[in-house]
Amino acid sequence: xxxxxxxxxGREHAxxxxxxxxxxxxxxxxxxxxxxxxxxxxxxxxxxxxxxxLTEAAVSGNYDLTVVGPEVPLALGLADRLxxxxxPVFGPSAAAAAxxxxxxxxxxxxxxxxxxxxxxxxxxxxxxxxxxIDSHAEPLVVKASGLAAGKGAxxxxxxxxxxxxxxxxLGDGRFGEAGRTVVIEAFLVGEELSVxxxxxxxxxxxxxxxxxHKRLGEGDTxxxxxxxxxxxxxxxxxxxxxxxxxxxxxxxxxxELDRRGARFAGCLYAGIMVxxxxxxxxxxxxxxxxxxxxxxxxxxxxxxxxxxLVRIAxxxxxxxxxxxxxxxxxxxxxxxxxPDAPEKGAAISLPAELPEGVTVFHxxxxxxxRGVLRVSGGxxxxxxAVAPTFAEAQAKSREGADAIAFDGKxxxxxxxxxxxxxxxx
Length: 425
Ligand code: AMP
Ligand code: GLY
Known about the structure:
- The chain is 31% helix and 25% strand.
- The chain is of the alpha+beta class.
- The radius of gyration is 21 Å and the shape is globular.
- Glycine binds at residues 150, 212, 226-227, 286, 290-291, 293.
């Protein structure tokens, strides 16, 4: 079997790792991949947003399956193009990927389907947006409707901040086209969860819940990022809560998308706020595996991932996926200046040996002409540890992260702090 993985970050390295672990004989390719992926896959030097060349590569390479990691190629229609050429693909159509690529559309789907989410309104007109802000209670969240690499949501404590945010987006063109439409919504209080489900558009196989750490700094301070670390499973994500998220959030979204002619097949990611009463509210939907959530969720699965991706690409339901006992924690090592202006180029020194159960996924790395591994992106490496207990996984991920050196390394030592507090009482 030949599988092409589109993307070149930590999520795609984790996907390749999971597929290889299940079936070392499978021939993996990655476009564009990274030096970590290169140990498992043949790299094709095609950017993840060049859907013309990716389509040609998938067809001429006769891949049995293409797995699309990031949202951008999905929003551009890569899955539609591959389907039109008869190539099996894991990842939704552009119409279904709009659930992530347009927050205005996503909110509309949620309202139509009665899915619990923050009250909101969508604007393209600045003065209408400003008067909405004047008549609503603080705090408010202002979001660029389009794709903004995790930076498009601004939590505004005061109305003045919210007004400045909509002026920046609708007036000054911050975030470009992505910010020409804004969603203004009420602030949700609670604890966030990431719930991923593999779906053919109708049946849904939930994966263990995880928790991302979006803020740059320890104690959840500083700017929002793509995610500085994650862990799985999450104690408050009880079977009863996951059942509610399936029944009240994910299945209604799939039904509503299907009703609109935008059947969603792939990985549906629900970003959930669990309110103080234990009720789930949707913060956002994504149309793909989370990054860094994939780096903790996939290592918790005991096989059946390849089969699930193939079955969904063929339009079938995924079989149940066995989950191993224990826990998994990943720590992100980022570059100095992330998320605004990460510095590239520092040489990376990896320890010769890693503790048992620790895997390093590459995210923003490159090999220079002399074979030196260097920083090439904001999030550089993800140190994932799997262990029988959360505390061991947390300690090992931290030790592994500590043992890797590069100039400007930025990381959080407190990944999983909420879970640690619960477990230590
Ligand atoms: P989003 O791009 O919609 O995922 O938002 C990024 C992050 O901003 C989320 O993961 C939350 O931490 C925060 N956020 C977004 N919307 C809200 C909201 N309505 N209430 C509270 N926090 C939010
Ligand atoms: N970690 C958040 C995301 O993948 O969007």
